[in-house]
Amino acid sequence: MLDYQTLLTEQADCVFTVAFNRPKVNAFSLQMVDELLHALRYVEREASIRCLVLTGSGDFFSSGHDMAEISEATDTASIHHHLESTYNRIVKRMRRLEKPIIGAINGPAAGAGLRGCSGDRYPLGCRERSLHLRFHRHWIDG
Description:
Helices cover 35% and strands 27% of the residues.
């Protein structure tokens, strides 16, 4: 399938599966964002794909962004730019995709990981999942 360093991909019949696959509990990196955008463009173009499934490898969906990387790449004044150039692009592309997207949330999803599945039209979870969104110094758990 497609060769990525931070994603695992598989196509079975008309279903294309993308699994987040990074150490640190599938934390997003700038590389993962780029690879996910590439995979979404591929799914959009490929006529044989009729459904996209997003999941995480191992026991986690995604812990959010790799905070060590984000603190090196941005400062407080540019966090808005960071969100616009990363996650907003993912969600916008997911919403434009004219194919069903299933979020197979196989474990904890937090921050950017939760935002990454917010474009899913059909989020599915398991009993062990937990959803955590940080909003201005406060955690919202679900």
